[in-house]
Amino acid sequence: MTNISVHRLLDDAFAGIAVTPDVQDLKEEIRANLLDRVAELTAQGVGADDAARRAVDELGDVRALVAEATADDGARSPAAPAPAVVDAAAAAARQRVPVRPRYVVGVIVASVVILLAFVPVIWVFSLTAERAEAGWVPLVLAAPYLAGPGVGWIVAASLRRETAAHHAMPWRRAAAYGCATALLAAGTAGGTVSAVLFARPGAVFQLGLPLVVAGGAWLAYLLATQTNRRKPWVLELEREHAQVGNRFEHDPVAAARFGIYTVVVWGVTAAVFLAVGFTAGWLWALTAVLLGFAAQMLLLARMLFGGEDRSAHRARPVP
Amino acid sequence: MQRANDPTGGKADAFAADLLRGHTDTIVLGVLRARDRYGFEIYKAIRDATGGDYEIKEATLYAAYRRLVKDGLVEAYWGDESQGGRRKYYRITDAGRAVYRRNVDAWVATRSTIDSLLDLKGS
Predict the structure, then answer these.
(1) Distance from A132 to chain B by nearest Cα, in Å?
(2) Partner residue opposite B57 with nearest CB, options A35, A60, A98
(3) Dist CA A27 CA A19 (whole Å)
(4) Which of A97, A195, A296, B14 is deepest in the core (most CB within 10 A)?
């Protein structure tokens, strides 16, 4: 519950501030710091709600904070690049994936493993059948099963890294993608290599197919279950949507008006239904019901979600 | 900066706070020398170093981070935290280290000058 109340207070503090990417960025940064401050306060024995309120209060006037932190955005000299260019550059800087030495080294090692694994294959296949020695055969057969994990590793590490500016894929999911790819790669290459080596096309299916099917099925499962719903920015959107709220709860007058309009809509609908039914036929009368339903829905949408602070929610860009 | 538990001398505190605020950027650079840190760590390091007497306002810090990033003295990157809040880490650049050293040198030189100036007895 602690977190929820911090998020709500933070949203309140930012209410009415135009949401530029820069402000969104600042808000996310503040959010993490607030959570830490709340954790510190609760560790000192302050109650969860009090801690959240104190942490947000300590920020002071958020409007002033935003103005101070993004002060230089408004003042651009005439010689400065056009806003679009600046925005693109800023976006690129924000989305930049940090270079991690471990990743670079890992990809190089995996690539070398893949290349070395296929050296015996190329060597044997470049010789004529008579000159090929039997000693090479195990190496050739093993090659796909060495290279497969290499490919899988590159896939997993890249996925884990790809969205680091937003949120990295959980390592287990990335690893699952890597394993599935490894199976697929090993199956395809393994089947092909053995088919060529033994000069039996059937070997493609006997040796390769089980792995390819397993890898493919796994990959299909992973892709089908891929979701954003646990990502913090999706949770944030959900919270915002929940905040739009139910107008009728805090505006009884609107609720009463809605009741009167509803009676009018269905009264007119009933009258038209009967009139059309007796004159043009009962099948045509159903049109009146359909129109009445449409009118009711439009009324509902307009009255339930219309209202004073619509503009505040409309301006929000999707992160 | 603000005196957290204000005893008496408001004027003297305001003077000290002004003096300190002028060095926020250098202080942040100093905190980042050892390793990359995110906002709350920096805030806490400064707060703990002053024994809790002075608190740098968070607004001042956020403004300082932006300024330092814009001047290329620090780099910002988002952490890998997959849930809750993402932390924005700051890393000092070589230019940042150079500026830090220059500012510290300037401060040391100025400090002795000011010390001797304040010690002048009118004759």
Answers:
(1) 51
(2) A60
(3) 10
(4) A195
Give A-chain residues touching B44 at CB under 8 angstroms.
40
Assigned domain for B123 exists: no
Report the share of chain A in percent with pLDDT over 90: 17
Shortest alpha-carbon distance between residue A114 and chain B (Å) = 29
Residue that is written with structure tokens 């002795």 in the block: B112
For residue range A163-189, what is the model confidence (pLDDT) as tens digits?
Answer: 544 566 778 888 999 999 999 988 888
Which chain B residue has its CA at the smallest distance from A231's CA? B83
Question: Is residue B52 situated within a structural domain?
Answer: yes
Do residue B88 and residue A58 have CB atoms under 8 angstroms apart? Answer: no
Residue B109 lies in domain: 2-118
Tokens in use for A174?
């990335």
Beta strands in chain A (DSSP E): none
ipTM: 0.80
* B76-89 confidence digits (pLDDT tens): 888 776 566 678 89
Of B40, B78, B83, the CB nearest to A37: B40
- A204 by DSSP, 3-state: which? helix
We report the CATH number of the domain holding residue B44 as: 1.10.10.10
Number of domains in chain B: 1
Query: What is the rounded CA–CA span in Å between residue B74 and residue A22?
Result: 17
In DSSP terms, B54 is beta-bridged to B3
Tell me, yes or no, whether B63 lies in a domain: yes
pLDDT score at B47 = 86
Residue B34, both tokens: 């050892």
pTM of the entire predicted model: 0.49
